[in-house]
């Protein structure tokens, strides 16, 4: 039917439909039965055993016993807020995605920031990558931009993700350490995966100890596609630019804060919003054609590479404001389900082999984390636009679908949605070559060091010193000497001064550089000042 008038949509992002306020109400059981005494269980006599028939006690305890759900397998610790995205201009020549349809258009969002490795109760200021996940509740369905605060990733292929996470989570025999790095298994794995070198440079830089969740950049990481109404498409990289600037802690501060207030980032975000000091980010795009991409000295399907801003400048297209804290941490922050498969007409995937694996992973894990296939009905996950299909039943189904027809084609009508109507995904014109099935990688994926060097050379002198200090600290915690040497041999491919300083700190000689995985002539990039925090 017709969409409800503005402000009356039961799920317009405010979640008014499901808010409960019990202030001043009488206490009841889950069945609505009044509870007169919430202090004492029912006993056979004042000093007698508790009676089995005390359904009030049993209901209260039983529900409590089941309060916990599994934490996320990664990004378990997070903090979130509501807000909106406002487009600066009509981008329809580039994309038909609803949030960019006209200047000034507002789309509700819910954003969750997270650390990757720590458990749900872990400390906020650990050295780690931060998740930056944005759910846009658009009028053509939910679009999730599930990004990080670092623009590249450790690995190039989803096949390696479980290995990476097994290496970076606390070691399985003793559950130590809580932090992302500083242990044997993390450095063992990464020192055997030279493709992680670029990401390691970022992870050892000040970027991995942000001052505030309000002061981090966000990145979609992968190359995506924008598609316009005619099916024309360009590649795109997404960037969030904090209006408060990008700021970090220094390591000494991060450690002290961690001891004094392990909720430092969560508290900071909450208090800023309560005080009306709303965090804001601008959304910027790097768009480029397939022909341009073919000329780049790296492969745009490789998530360990950035597209330097010197090559493709950023275009700012809108602004996001976070202006409302959640009412309930569990209902919203914990139960929100972001998914890279949640795209809307106008946005599309590329063949990035890391992205392709993610498209599968999120919904799969959420089926177990959120208890079955109906978690899209949980209020924080439900779209704000009308949603109709022939899916039925399953654990915890809330919707009461009417009518007897839940299949297509049918000749009976009533109750069944039909596929005609609004234009959905247009077919996308792509030129990417179709080849034989293969388990392998494009040759340019094997250049693991050029952009690690680009990052190093783009840092100011004190930022470089912080990176040296971080490698020294982290590798000094590694108990197996061979792992330290292997990591030094990777650093020897990045920069002489870097490897010498780290080796000296560890009391080791500089080993020969690790053999390169490619014989291709490697690009040498001019330093990119935009990669330094000083430019942000
Ligand atoms: C969370 C898988 C790579 C960003 C998760 C979760 C899984 C997962 C299973 C937990 C989801 C949940 O329980 O709701 C994967 C796989 C990857 C991958 C298989 C590679 C193949 C990445 C990359 C990024 C990223 C490259 C950044 C661009 C995030 C974020 C979250 C997350 C931000 C937390 C979402 C939230 O706040 O709820 N990932 N991930 N992941 N992932 Fe990934």
TrEMBL record:
Residues of the active site: 75, 148
GO MF, one annotated term: heme binding
Organism listed in the record: Pseudoduganella ginsengisoli
Start-end of Polar residues biased regions: 25-44
GO biological process: hydrogen peroxide catabolic process; response to oxidative stress
Domain Catalase core: from-to ranges: 28-416
Coiled coil: none
Alphabetized UniProt keyword annotations: Heme, Hydrogen peroxide, Iron, Metal-binding, Oxidoreductase, Peroxidase
Reactions listed under catalytic activity: 2 H2O2 = O2 + 2 H2O
Residues annotated as binding heme: 72, 112, 161, 358, 362, 369
Family (UniProt): Belongs to the catalase family. HPII subfamily.
Cofactor: heme
Major enzyme class: oxidoreductase
GO cellular component term of the entry, any: cytosol
Domain of life per record: Bacteria
The protein's Enzyme Commission number: 1.11.1.6
Protein name: Catalase
Protein role: Decomposes hydrogen peroxide into water and oxygen; serves to protect cells from the toxic effects of hydrogen peroxide.
